[in-house]
Amino acid sequence: MAYSNFKNLLEFEKKFGIKNRRLNLFDEVPKLSASEDLQKALLIANELPIKSEKAKSEMIVAPILIELRNRNDKYFTFFSGDSLNVDEENDLNGECDFILAKDTGSFDLSFPIMQIVEAKRNDVEIGIPQCAAQMLGAKIFNEQNDINLDFIYGCVTTGDDWLFMKLTDELHINTKKYYLGNIEELLGVFQIIINLFRQ
């Protein structure tokens, strides 16, 4: 699990020369109502003793991503637990919690646009370096496949707290966290990101 070897952003910066800074990534976020199916799924999740990362991914993260996929006419797909191996020598390899990709109908991963990392020990800050490494891995993967994007998005989540990031020539970490308790705003942020890749 080499992506998880990155424990702090200073190490990431020293290795790849990518500086980080906090920015407001989203000026106006539309509020999107959750479907009845998503509301039911999250209600069930709230009633269950969800303690593990696996449980959070199955009961919280996956239903949100399914909702977004259905909302966007299956424009994108997502992979859960797939490996993204691009540069083992530089620790850019290993399993990823979730990878959002443009849906090309392929069974295999192609055109990743966003990485989602489940936070360790229920702390989003701990997951930032790992997510940054996976975002860089996704960027390199695309370049290896002749896909050049100006940016890749990432997100670290505890299931309840969601922190978004954007990788350009720098790593931009959003100044604001979003919360499951305000699902309408959280869906709005995801929709902004998805819309950026429709062009």
Concise structural overview:
Helix content is about 35%, strand content about 20%. The chain is built from five helices and seven strands, in the order αβααβββαβββα.
Write the layout of secondary structure elements.
Elements: H1 9-16, E1 20-23, H2 36-47, H3 53-71, E2 76-80, E3 98-102, E4 112-118, H4 124-144, E5 152-157, E6 161-167, E7 171-179, H5 183-196
Molecular structure report:
This protein has helices at 9-16, 36-47, 53-71, 124-144, 183-196; strands at 20-23, 76-80, 98-102, 112-118, 152-157, 161-167, 171-179. By secondary structure, the chain is of the alpha/beta class. Helix 4 (124-144) links the parallel strand 4 and strand 5 (152-157). The N and C termini lie far apart (33 Å). The mean pLDDT is 93.
List keywords for this structure.
single chain, 199 residues, alpha/beta, 7-stranded mixed beta sheet, 22% strand
Identify the overall geometry: globular
Structural class: alpha/beta
Share in helix: 25-40%
> Cα-atom Rg, whole angstroms?
16 Å
